[in-house]
Structure prediction request, 117 residues.
Amino acid sequence: VQLVESGGGLVQAGGSLRLSCAASGIIFSINAMGWYRQAPGKQRELVAGIASNDRTKYADSVKGRFTISRDNAKNTVYLQMNSLKPEDTAVYYCVVGFGLIEPTDFWGQGTQVTVSS
Prediction:
């Protein structure tokens, strides 16, 4: 499985970004898709996950600000990030997998999101 991420960058606090991740390869058995992030000096954390039935899960810190969605016809997962805060600054990783809603099996290369204050 190959994952190609796009959409990261630099944004001011309060701004928005949309991350995209297109999956290719042997993906017929993939269930969950999602995004993790890792900030300097911090552990990697699940930001949002989405199941094949569109059930979603979010980290408490992003609830109400971030929205995850998927387009199964395009094998693509999106993360719409609104009201960004400096503490959202991290490398964001697209992940897909065989689990129900928290993917862990295949990881993208990561895309940097930087939120300035």
In short: The first strand starts at residue 2 and ends at 6. The radius of gyration is 13 Å.
